[in-house]
Amino acid sequence: MRKLLLPSTPAILSSEFFPVLQLCATDKSLFPNLKTLYLKNTRGLFIPFIPLLLSSRTTVIDITFRTPEAPKAVIASMVTTFPTLCPNLQSITLRDLPRDPIIVAAVSGMLLVTNRNTLRSFCVDSLLTEEAREVIYKLANLCELSAVIEKGIPLPPAVLPNLTKLTITYDDGDDCRLQMFRGATLQKLESVILYSQSGKIGDLLRAFGRMALAASAQNTLSKSPLHTVLSPSVHATEKSPR
Questions:
Q1: Domain 1-136: which CATH class?
Q2: Domain layout of the chain by residue ranges
Q3: DSSP sequence for 165-211
Q4: What is the mean pLDDT of the chain?
Q5: For the whole model, what pTM was predicted?
Q6: Which of 55-69, 81-95, 154-168 is most confident?
């Protein structure tokens, strides 16, 4: 098996299945040839068994958790196994992770030991430690990045020469956190998606225009629209000036 997609693990697997699953994995991997793993609506009962599905050939991991049922400690333990089980990961996507320091530590630790030469996409719904932030914004081969930015946390300038798609999630329009674009190396950036809970979206986009469009991404970004996704409480949308 090369690709596995489970749209809803609880709906298709009973609790009695998991002990049997563990006994069957005598070689530590149920699918030694698996390259791509997609898990949606993943709940707590199944999470400890996810490593049994991975192999040394797995290059794509895409998991969406079902919160608030997702157990923090179990997820953290599972995430830390990825680099060891999958030494040549190219794409890591983890959605709807619980917001907790134990998750931040696990995700950051996972990033720090992941093969940086093969990693092309990192879309993880979690904050990162300072050490991990220094790494992720300077990965030369990274093509897609989804970052969660915390208020008041300084970011290093982005040096991502091959990045084409960037998604940023944050709580307000404080442009101090857009300093990562000042002097950034983003020659291939084509698309930027901003997720904001702030009603001051116009201020945010103007700040982005001053910084990002003045950086090395100006020519490539002009070929693609700047998308802005607002929280449900915000009804007006403004687009950045060209």
A1: alpha beta
A2: 1-136, 154-242
A3: EEEEEESS--GGGGGGGTT-B-TT--EEEEEE--S-HHHHHHHHHHH
A4: 79
A5: 0.82
A6: 81-95
